[in-house]
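Justification of computing resources. Each target in the renewal requires a structure prediction run like the one illustrated here; the chain below, 303 residues long, is used simply to show the kind of job we budget for.
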Amino acid sequence: MDRLTGMEIFLQAAERGSFSAAAHALKVSPGLVTKHIKSLEEQFGVDLFHRTTRRVKLTDAGAILRSRWQNILAEIREAEAAVASERTKVQGTLRISTPGAFGRLKVAPLVADYAKLHPELVVELLFNNDRFDPIADGIDVAFKMSAIAEDASNLIVRRVGVYEVVVCGAPSYFGQHGRPSAIDELTRHNCLGHRSETSPGITPWRFRGPEGVVTVPVSGSYLSNNTDALIAAAVQGHGLICLPRLMVFDEIAMESLTALELDCPPIERPVYASWAGNRNLSARIRTFIDYAVAHLPDCGPTG
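Resulting structure tokens:
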């Protein structure tokens, strides 16, 4: 016999003093009620009810069982309600991972606005450029500004936006080294960038040529895994950088950096949100992803 069903039948019969009344309340047959009660009495080896032609009354053993099972069943119902609310109510803790500069400029304001809409929600925003394991690291939603690894088969990935990329440098750099106007000139310049994950040196820069993607293997004297450090070096005239316009918007506006107009524009890069794919989504994750899709379609400087 199903233990939970047996508990419900027993408690209904105890409350109503009648097997038939319990059957009516639970919308089951009287025979099923009798069968469950008999099974319980055989299991415990004691009578749980005194039976008469009109009513049933708990024995001492039945009274003990009722006092314990009432609390247990109430806790089960509370647990079921709490789990069910995960699908419908935005509450609990939402852990979000994001790359540093993009997170500071775009994700942090987005998360703050979302949190205002859901006062019962606790948000943990983690700035991290490293690889992650959503399950092992307890991350609910992770933003990435590059393609998700092909071996990440346990992830669900959704594109939530795209951002413009520019190549720029300081006026002092251009005064000393000239201003390139074509992408094939970039190999003769000191280019500052992120270290490649697949080969020594800087991650190649990609442009949109007339016949498709053009990859330029740039090199330079300054590499970093921190975007703010690259921007600071470029402002000081050390070399060129290739970054999202939103990340250098203030520097361009203040003319400490100048965006180049090249013969081929840098390829825009999508923004992805990813989450563990081996579970149903809670309301807090589902609604946040939808909110991000609605508010990050164009990751421009004022978008």
